[in-house]
Amino acid sequence: MTDGNASAAPHARPDPPRVAWRKEMRERVIAEARSLAAEDGWDRVRVADLALRAGVSRPSIYKEFGDRAGIGRALVEHETDKFLIGLAAVLDTHRGRLAPALEAAVAHSLEQAAVNPFVGAVLTATRGGTDALLPFLTSRPEPVFSSTRRLLCAWFGETVPQVTEDRRAAAADLTVRLTLSHMLLPSHDPGATPSHIARTVCATLGA
């Protein structure tokens, strides 16, 4: 006799042990790479140290990430996802209110630059004359700044749909560039920065 629940959707199968191990190993390596970059800067991160901290072999790391640059790219992509989730939440909290949302979004981004040890390590390295991680942040596939621009463009499309697409794109680009400039070179009155950027972007939008 057939069980009446036989037609129910089956539960998702767990990953095979090898796949599960790879996922866990990848997460450990990225976490330790983040920690090492925050402590000493990306320039000083060595695969040998990373392997020791993560408890895996160097060949395993190279097989998973390709090379040291692959680790950096994976690290930036991981941090980008976290940043975008937080930024989207801030914008959603102020949905329908253009200027307050922009102020909150800029303030959130500047705060992340101040308190996030990984972001801080990147900015410190930049101010010190090295840009070892900046290529991953600006020109590699799915970089954080391009992803942020796309997020802002989509949000502007919902918030100010009457504004032309070109102006929304220009406003998104301006928001990112101004915020980044203040991350790298904070103003003498950082508390006023979010409102200043918000006013400038609103003027660009004509809103």
UniProtKB/TrEMBL annotation:
InterPro entries: AlkX_C, Homeodomain-like_sf, HTH-type_TetR-like_transc_reg, HTH_TetR
The entry's DNA-binding region: 46-65
Keywords: DNA-binding, Transcription, Transcription regulation
Record-annotated HTH tetR-type domain positions: 23-83
Keyword hit for Phosphoprotein: no
Domain of life according to the entry: Bacteria
Matching SUPFAM superfamilies: Homeodomain-like
Gene Ontology MF annotations: DNA-binding transcription factor activity; transcription cis-regulatory region binding
Presence of keyword Repressor: no
UniProt-listed PANTHER family: HTH-TYPE TRANSCRIPTIONAL REGULATOR BETI (PTHR30055:SF234), HTH-TYPE TRANSCRIPTIONAL REGULATOR RUTR (PTHR30055)
Protein name: TetR family transcriptional regulator
